[in-house]
Sequence to fold (277 residues):
Amino acid sequence: MREHLAPGLLVDEVEFPVEEGKVMEFARALGDTDLDTVPLTFTAVAGHWRDQAAMVELLGLELPRIVIGGSEWEYHAPVEIGDRLRGRRLVSTVDEKCGARGTMTIIALETRFHRHDGALAVVQRDTVIELPG
Amino acid sequence: MGAFEQLTAPITRTQIVRFAGAAGDFNAMHHDEPFAQANGQPSVFAMGQLTAGLLGSAVAEWLGRGNLAGYGVRFKDKVWPGDRLMLTGRQVDERRWDLNVVREADDVVVMTGWAIVRPSQYPRPEAASSAAGARSSASAIRSS
Fold:
């Protein structure tokens, strides 16, 4: 059922503007008083351009068993208001751990966000865990 | 070695909803109390990305947004409305900081993390000429 779930699988592709209003909204939600600088975790706004239910279905996971283990960001070229970012989310690793309660699946996803001029700006990695059923 | 700490205001449902709109995370567990309770939770709870963002804001203030080469978090426990979070950062070597988020009420670790600053923050005196270049590129990032 999950033969397709392997490193290199393309999960989705997004492109979005880094807008002043969105940066302000995101910063204010964090209580951040710096409303002009793109926050460290701003690529989370890609959620607006993604279909998470489709991601779960594509990966062949059961939504109620999914937890997010963690996220990390690598910063390369700077991102400013007015830029556009585009990124392809790929499966980078898939691990299964068998325990007394069943099999736990750990999937690492990586999105490399490039600016419109092609420069690599941010690499985001997320760990998706499907708990034993 | 440096250290920072900061206590957040109590997390509110309004803040969770505001972040849902900001980030585009409309998982009903985070904003629909009857839905969350029907699914076995006492109330809505914060999305991990909200806690990651709160700590990220603090880290950017502590270390300088443009100085950061990397930032990462591991989610350990749920964050509930009313929780006040103690954010701490402790420098472990020249470039690396270990980060921790603890719920003030019961001292439970809800998130751990790390931050890595750019090497250009620490130009070696013997490499003065290349350090000058590194400094100007760091300030260009900061001014963005």
Q: What stands out?
A: Strands of chain B lie at 3-7, 68-75, 85-91, 96-103, 109-117.
